[in-house]
Amino acid sequence: MKIDVVKNVLDANDRIAEENKALFEKSGTWVINLMSSPGAGKTTLVEKTIEALKDKYSIAVIEGDIEDTCDAERVARHGVPVVQINTGGACHIDGNMVREALPNFDLQGIDLLIVENVGNLVCPAEFRIGENIKAMILSTPEGADKPAKYPLMFQESAVMIINKTDLIPYVDFDMEQAKRSALGCNRDLVIFEVSCKTSEGLTGWFQWLEDQIESYKKQDP
């Protein structure tokens, strides 16, 4: 019975996610669902991405947290529209939460919508929100064993950003093991090694995003 309940919840979410996706396609908005453990650097990556791309693209952000608005306040300082979703205990953002946030945006004027999910390596991977891709951050202090421990996150993501490379001299992190293990979960995974603190490696991430947005714009309506 429990399996049936879980399946029903996921099926209902998928239907709403498809409705969201149709809205995004109609408006030409490319959507990224950004996931990671707490403290891996999601908000800093969002800020760096906004600063790099905001002169070329119209960007909006949905911030997901269990409580508080500190991350939304950080993003708002960069002059882009942002909506905070407080889940009140839920460990992920789902399709319905995103749908309820969308009236706060003029989607027709948004090229890139970044949804920063709740910090968690489990639940966010299971719930679609209507995104074009899922991307996840693995920070070096977490260790290289996370793909083996949380494979679904790496299986569902199109991109893995290995953040905090500036800390490698000070933490026990095997870069090659992490990449090998992640690609074992998903051989098509695109991997970027970056430091959001020093900005090292971020140019490749920005260019990849630009390529995705431009390719999306060229699709037939």
Summarize the helix and strand pattern as letters: HEHEHEHEEHHEHEH
Tally the beta strands.
7
Low-confidence stretches: none
CATH superfamily: P-loop containing nucleotide triphosphate hydrolases
Counting structural domains, the number is 1
| Cross-sheet strand order for the largest sheet | 3-2-4-1-5-6-7
Oligomer: single chain
Mean pLDDT: 94
**Describe the biggest sheet?**
7 strands, parallel
Shape: globular
What do these coordinates show?
This protein is α/β, with parallel strands linked by helices and 221 residues long. It has one domain: Rossmann fold (3-Layer(aba) Sandwich), CATH 3.40.50.300. It is 40% helix and 18% strand. The chain contains eight helices and seven strands. It has helices at residues 2-27, 42-53, 70-76, 95-101, 146-149, 151-156, 175-185, 202-217, and strands at residues 30-36, 59-65, 82-86, 112-116, 133-139, 159-163, 190-193. The protein has a seven-stranded parallel β-sheet with strand order 3-2-4-1-5-6-7, with helices on both faces. Helix 7 (175-185) links the parallel strand 6 (159-163) and strand 7. Helix 1 (2-27) runs parallel beside helix 4. The radius of gyration is 17 Å and the shape is globular. The chain starts with a helix and ends with a helix. The model has no long low-confidence stretch (mean pLDDT 94).
